[in-house]
Predict the structure.
Amino acid sequence: MTAVTPTSTSDAPEAAQSVRWKMASAYAGTTPIIGPEMKEMLERIRTSSDGSLDIRFFEPGALVPPLEIFDAVASGGVDAGWATPGFWAGKVPALQLFASIPFGPAAPEYMAWMYVGGGQELLDELYLKHNIKSTLCMILPPEASGWFRQEIRTLDDLRGLKMRFFALGARVMEKLDVSTQLLAGGDIYPALELGTIDATEFSSPAIDRNFGFEQIAKFYYFPGWHQQSTWADVIYNLDGWNELSLGQQTLLTMACGDLVQRGLAQGEALQVPALEYFEGQGVQLKRWNDEFLNAYRTAWEQVAIEESEKDADFARALASLNEFRERFAIWRDLGYLD
């Protein structure tokens, strides 16, 4: 881990620290919203701290492969990581519920559970077991459901497909006889091009535009039932985090709070030009009918039961979220037009 050194000889317990850390990103710096916004946030942190907090952004794979960031941060081999909790499903299955959830809440409701309804405390507990401190740093609007080479007319058309899919949504697709694998963003296009996968989902239109999927797959399906909103977080090695002053910890937390609202605003605003671009490229925008959505929901209900039976933390987190949503429903139904 990069050293944290005092910049003052004061005996005060909160002596300023000079921090030079490395952040391993799962997302390329050019990936719309999640790349540039994080790099800008780190620059604002440097400026606001007069240079005493200097966290350097490293592109995917420059320090460690994206899917190895969790272990690298936990061990202290890397100071910080930028990803989504769902990437660590193989390590901590319950973390998937703090990234996105099939047929889950829209961003405002998800934020309410996280910040007020007990979600943050559960998330902290899960990470602390692995010597990691997490700071929620972005929430994104609904994703697309996926890119397909051919039109999907019936559920039978899904069977046998090889598809890149994320987190709990992948388990749902497997119930429908789709073979899934998780690939980092930069690995998806080559896999499509080589035929290693037949289809993919990745993110929202504004972010997908950066990857060129439309050059290979011309059928783009909505809605993203598997990710109606998605959290990303910065994870820090807990030992390094504890060496920071309270002021430095507060600055990092506040910077991420600011990025949550910036990311959501951009995430909504940038979808329209992206969709217009895809239409101009001959992409057909499709919406799943009720038969598909009902099949996905039924499969998700089965997956939720199975995952809860296998993992106590998953069951506890899902129960917390479901209870919050059940109570929240009266406000959702009365307060909103839709």
